[in-house]
């Protein structure tokens, strides 16, 4: 299924993330679902029913950490929000975290959850075969496109598409999964049914990016740099109006506070079965996108699983520069962190410094 060069990419990502040989073999030959093999046979029959939600413990957040987080947001130029939640103590710090920010590829997390929820319900398996053709191609980052274009069709599995979507942020892999589970409405239903809060899901990568640019979607935009060329040919007033409308009310917007709580519930096993929860969190920890965002301040001995998201640029501004994830200390205590920059002209290095500052503040208060 995998071309040699693509298996090498996935192999490196899996091994760097600390996955064992069993899952690596599963990614290569699509044979067995290694995490599920850890579950007793008697449980696999009923694993589609996650445990009932439990209340999180509640305690006041540490005052110095609250002060640090709010200062970071206050001193940052642009629209940004931060939410940090302790899974063990139950506190959550929200700094401008109720405002919906563009998610961009952070929303791949909800597609993955929808796919794995379908797996828990017996509607699909990670080894189900999937075909991709040129009609499935999207726009921007889509490494899998080279394999599709080479032969006109690429045969793969649900497992590989999930790995590519979550670890490489491949837009085409993600949209193909989206189609498999029933489209945007299926993801919105999952978000609603699981009670994940103020999280929107957009219309899919092609329509989202076209709308943000002020373009109607055309199939030829999925090839080469056709999309970028068409966008550049638009009158500046059209592009700016579309960009401003998206930033003001993002169709894929989500509140950082909602994401931090959703990640806490994922970690607690309240959204997916134990097998699917372990699988997704292991895949997230193996991701190496955005190594200078939140991950850039993660100390040795700590683990971090995450999903990044980056939107389009216009005149030095970026509509969506994000990183959200689960940070776990050597003693097992965990924090969920959502840092979302909805609109800013600040250079990338300063955006990364904001994110790293949040992690550094959390680590400094940990005990």
Question: Key terms for this structure?
Answer:
5-stranded antiparallel sheet, globular, Beta-lactamase, single chain, 367 residues, alpha+beta
What is the helix tally?
15
Spell out the helices and strands N to C.
Answer: HHHHEEEHEHEHHHHHHEHHEEEEEH
Domain unit count: 1
Termini Cα gap: 46 Å
- Extract low-pLDDT stretches: 1-53
Sheet/helix structural class: alpha+beta
Biggest sheet, in brief? 5 strands, antiparallel
Strand content: 15-25%
In short:
This protein is of the alpha+beta class. Helices cover 44% and strands 15% of the residues.
Task: Describe the SSE topology.
Layout: H1 4-16, H2 21-29, H3 41-44, H4 63-74, E1 79-86, E2 92-95, E3 101-102, H5 108-120, E4 129-133, H6 145-151, E5 153-157, H7 158-168, H8 171-181, H9 184-193, H10 205-213, H11 226-232, H12 236-248, E6 253-254, H13 256-267, H14 274-285, E7 303-310, E8 313-314, E9 317-318, E10 321-328, E11 334-343, H15 348-365
Antiparallel strand pairs: 1-2, 1-11, 3-6, 4-5, 7-10, 8-9, 10-11
Helix pairs in contact: 1-2, 4-15, 5-8, 5-9, 7-8
